Amino acid sequence: MAGTFRVVDTGLLTGRENIALDHALLEARVAGEIGDTIRFIAFKPCALVGRHQDLAQELNLDACKDRGVQTVRRITGGGALYMDESQLGWALVCDRRSLGKATLSEITEAICTAAAAGLSKLGVDARFRPRNDIEIDGRKVSGTGGFFDGNVLMFQGTVILDLDPARMAAVLNVPQAKLEKRQLEGVAARVTSLRAELGKMPSPDAVKAALLEGFREVLGIDTVPDALSAAEQARADEAYNEEIGTEEFVAEICDPAREAGVLVGQNKARNLTAYLRVEGPQDRRVREVLFVGDVFVTPPRALLDLEGHLRGVQLAEIEEKTEQFFADSGAALLGVTSADFSAALLNAAAQPAL
Fold this sequence. Notes:
The protein is an alpha+beta fold. Helix content is about 35%, strand content about 30%.
């Protein structure tokens, strides 16, 4: 066995409360206050954007307000999600060495393969699809994402138990390019649910048990039931009140192109956008830069560090300085390269100011 994971079920909470708990468990694991942990998560209706996404671009904010859907910013990368009581969330918070894998892509494959093996025990043919999905017959039933904080891994996933395509489509703004790429007509065309696949609604407890069985078998771990401690809850309350529960944090990236003098460039192949302000003689130096997109960079603060690293850099040096940053920082990338970031930024530099 690779080790023993405690299993906690924190019940039905708002999206922001759940993300605050993710933050709390990560901090507690980094501090050595808790052991390796698997958490099961239930959500009240909410729409979650990834750590580096544009809130207004990814979500229909009017629809969220009208339907009572809370907006949430995750502490992990990846794309926008709609969550409610008909979906089950899960998270692993552990020392990366507990899984015997080195890179985020290797860990993603191992955990997703384990989760797929568990879901298959319910009577479906679930399979891992790179870079971070679990599918049944080519339709997504689970999405995942994760990052490292030193040697501690935070890896999250969802399982769609049942699906309300109309509500999901109403609150999520899916890029038309993404739909065209897969020859889809709507947001619900590439997703499915366990209810649809099984012909009946599975009990959440049965799904949790199946996932744990898959984790034990494929990851070689043991599991023991546990409960959230008072110290973990106190950490979560602090994170919620000071950051994650606040409107300022959720709207930290929201329509950055609305400000004057902003150049906007894209790397459409990676669904990555760069917002750029320039200065200096002939406007050939970076004043500010912001990267936005469905990207996984670990740790998440690495993207903020890259943006700071590029301030004052000559546009002609962007490729060199971006490559140097990732070589020196130790940041890990999943599905993107340093060249993808510099390409988006150089595309911005070639555009007229808004």
